[in-house]
Specification:
Length: 189
């Protein structure tokens, strides 16, 4: 092969090397090629658009979101002895975070806690009475459709105070822990 031909092939190869990604990016962004990945890393459902909890109340407990990811279990109605199981579940998720556990806050939202046992061994789970927050309860009832679909639900609140992820009943504890670990690694972890 002559030197002139080799040089031309080299130039063509270099142009193709740099032009191909540009052409593919253009085709993807223009919609000429439709591509969606088969799966994502997360198991929970993203809430779109995220819901700012501070839009519903100015109570001090909203400040607990700052600088921490928060795992919230919302109970429709008032809490009784059965809520101890939810507290235990929240506590176990926090334990699975290992050295990042201090970056995860836990909350239990309900319309009251009158029938809860007095010997509270889960003092690190903040209990929030949402009885006087009808707009928040209405929003949570709607969000329950992408979570447990029965008024209850398990959610993640970002450090900025936005409800951003919901977990379904069929999400395993391993899946939930994996999602929380990913979030803690990315920001605030």
């Amino acid at each position: 092969m002559q030197a002139k031909t080799k040089n031309r092939l080299s130039i063509i190869a270099i142009v193709l090397l740099f032009a191909t990604p540009v052409v593919v990016a253009y085709l993807l962004s223009s919609g000429a090629i439709s591509y969606t990945p088969d799966s994502t890393k997360n198991h929970g459902e993203f809430i779109s658009p995220p819901v700012n909890v501070a839009d519903f109340t100015q109570d001090d407990w909203v400040n607990e979101f700052k600088d921490h990811w928060t795992l919230v279990y919302r109970v429709q109605g008032a809490c009784d002895e059965s809520c101890v199981k939810f507290e235990d579940d929240l506590h176990r998720y926090r334990l699975t975070m290992g050295h990042r556990a201090d970056k995860l806050k836990l909350m239990l939202w309900a319309d009251g806690f009158n029938a809860m046992p007095k010997d509270d061994m889960y003092q690190h789970v903040l209990k929030v009475n949402t009885n006087d927050l009808p707009a928040l309860n209405q929003t949570m009832d709607q969000l329950s459709q992408i979570s447990h679909a029965d008024g209850n639900g398990l959610y993640v609140v970002a450090p900025e105070g936005y409800l951003m992820m919901a977990f379904k009943k069929d999400n395993t504890s391993t899946h939930i822990s994996q999602d929380i670990k990913l979030l803690l690694k990315r920001k605030g972890g």
